[in-house]
């Protein structure tokens, strides 16, 4: 299991993207959610706005899936989570899995979140 890393000063993903240090590749993926309330789905989750969010609906667990059409190297995953705003809807676990299809996925990293209040960083590769 991996411990949460808060984004260190000077490593804002938007700034890193502007300098060419990182590249946003989420638009190359197919995003799906186990459930969502109307108006609180993938578009809101992916919006470049901290005021919008995904709100799940239905029984737990609530899952989000990011699947790339072809083999894609992902080194770091940046996620903003704010327990104070989201309370019981806040992420509690992030799991990174790899495989050739949905049926042979193997977990390579897991991150437990406890009342997060900032951008969280999950290092996928060492």
UniProtKB/TrEMBL annotation:
Pfam families in the record: ANAPC10 (PF03256)
One BP term from GO: cell division
Organism: Pan troglodytes (Chimpanzee)
CDD domains, alphabetized: APC10
The UniProt record lists the keyword Cell cycle: yes
GO cellular component: anaphase-promoting complex
Protein name, UniProt field: Anaphase-promoting complex subunit 10
Domain spans labelled DOC: 1-126
Alphabetical keyword list: Cell cycle, Cell division, Mitosis
PROSITE patterns registered for this protein in UniProt: DOC
Family (UniProt): Belongs to the APC10 family.
InterPro entries on file: APC10/Doc1, APC_su10/DOC_dom, Galactose-bd-like_sf
